[in-house]
Amino acid sequence: MAKKLEFPKNFLWGGATAASQIEGAYDVDGKSLSILEMIPFMELKDRKDLSATRKLTKQDLLDSIENKKGLHYPKRYGIDFYHRYKEDIALFKEAGLKIFRMSVAWGRIFPNGDEKEQNQKGLEFYRNVFKECKAQGLEVMVTINHFDTPFPIMQNYGGWKNRKVIDMYFKYAKVLIDEFNEYVKYWLPFNEINLAVLISAFFVEDKSGNKTTFEKINESYQDLHHQFIAQTKVVEYAKKFKNIQVGCMVANSTTYALDCNPVNVFENQQKELMKKLFYYDVMIKGEYPWYSIKYFEDNNIKILKEPGDDQLLKNNPVEFITFSYYMSSTIAKEEGELTEGNLMKLGKNPFLEATEWGWQIDPIGLRYTLNQLWDRYHVPLFISENGIGMLEKLNNKNTVEDDYRIDYLARHFEQMSLAIKDGVNLFGYTMWTPIDVVSAGSNEMSKRYGLIYVDYDDYHKGTGNRFKKKSFNWFKKFMNTSEI
Ligand code: P53
Question: Could you tell me if the CB of 326 is within 6 A of ligand 1?
């Protein structure tokens, strides 16, 4: 029996993407390589966990620039949105999307970061995309930096630990806002700002030689501080424009205590503070919270601030919260059983099922999260990513019968409507993703999230043609009927 869900009339339903995962055309119209385009594809059997990146040496990176080893770099090719955007945007419209979340590749606008003048060719591409969205009646949400910092900034300035990068970033962000404020109402300065500490650590060298390592993770709170400051500058600048709003974006790792053992409950509370709420606290409440100051002291982490930084943070909280929500996990003092993921191993929850990537499906966890964030911050909420990645193949009818995706979306939509009934101010949702893309974490095409199937394999072999999955038609119907 179909069930009708209730959502506000003007609820912003849509889909989310990121430049490095869709555009391709890595060397077209003056674009530089991004740090993500330096990461070669690695077969699943050779992947241990997050990715190949930890094993990249400095020499590997230099070889990558010219691709001396003939390796495959998936994020250089994406799904060729650069040339197919009209077709894709038309399909998004057909699926019933009202808002399209996308990101701009910094390296198209300022290839080295430190140029005086912006690259007009890069701006032209995005203007064309935004015009197309407008023509199709799609609202746009732009992520200014979705992990893909230009590699020259990493090479020449050492990345975000260098304070100069704030100015380079702000110059870039200002150009986007000046050029596109009439097309783009919603702006997110950074994607999943809480993952910045991981991303920047990819390129740190260890003492013994030239291997990259995750061990210096503490140092990257400095990178993070610079990103916080860069973000507040965008918030401050955007106040000049009446028609735009700036929000934050956090990878929302929803966690529960493994059981009711107070030791585990306390452990979860503490982890939740530093791993998640800390980020929202800084960006919404405008200051480093008390527990983070204690944490930095205890762990001997020193963050260099300049005079004025605290005031900038205080004066410029973001106007709305967005977050990605894919799964939940459990926390225990003594690590318990883990999910069998080939990307991440997470604390297992005996009540939940996991995908092949070890991501535990938890729709009620979304309602829980919405309640938690609304209660703590009381600013409007927007789910900027949510979806399910699976191995998929076209069947002989040139479609994919992705009932599991329909089920995943329906169950999450239901919990969203319940959260709204609870009293939460949730104003929109962009699924990850309307169309198959290159995976962020594992660089593969095989982990497919789309309503639309894209005929490329992990090596970018295929026609690139687009095919509607069963979920495409389901989503379209849901947009008209609100029925699951
Ligand atoms: P992929 C890890 C955990 C949660 C969200 O991820 C994450 C990641 C990084 O992999 O990233 C977001 O493609 C990110 C998107 C990404 C999506 O989740 O690894 O904002 O760029 O594609 C899904 O399966």
Answer: yes
